[in-house]
Amino acid sequence: MNTRSFRYILPLLVILLAGHVFFVTSCKKDENPPPPEKQTGKIAFKFAHRIDGNPIQYDTMKYMNAAGNHYLVNEIQWFISDVAIHKGNDSTLLDVWEDIHYVDTDIENTWTFTLKDDIQPGTYDSISFTFGICETKNKSLMFVNPPESLMFWPELLGGGYHYMKLNGKWLDTLNHISPFNFHLGIGQIYYSFPDSIERYVQNYFRVRLPNSAFEVNEDETKTFTIVMNVENWFQNPNVFDFNYWGGDIMQNQDAMHAACQNGWDVFTLEK
Description:
5-stranded mixed β-sheet, 8-stranded antiparallel β-sheet, about 35% strand
């Protein structure tokens, strides 16, 4: 081989050798790839509203509560917030993306709530949530669009938003059909009714759903149905009589307190 040919062959050998080294090095990296990130799951809720175990037939005077009041239901609107999952002594609040959800029996797209928070795969003991909105979050004007904005609680009565509007009618002692607004929200203690308020009362409460242990796997969305058993608002421990409390309880803290005490078994979970 002459000197002229060697001058061209030598650079080619260098290039081929470098390529071989790169190829071998690349292969060695691929032999030990990093471990994949652990996949997570999610949970979602559907909402159902029942009386005596059956779906509500709205606008029909077919129900009787524990006080013997014949009644009907027109609509139910309420807030669920601050969902948490529990395992042993640990609790995880699922509030990173959407901590408050509005439910309306007249608006179908509110009947589901998929929480965007990632959940580590495993077994959990229970699920809890706040009925209504807690004091630190229940601020006036945080909802600017309906339907949520229409849940406003009058500023004079404490501001923020209703926890729930359960609207209907009952047959009163004169056998007249009278409207009721079973509305729950911030209560008031009065120096003198109705224009001198001493202090406000936060009536929201935590709900630990019974029989709500669950297991979630990687890349799984676990869906549950939260049932509001409406008849339980009117019984146990307090028999709620519309003829005694009347049709409007927004400014009656005693009535709202009695109703909220009954809320302990209003909600159940179906898997």
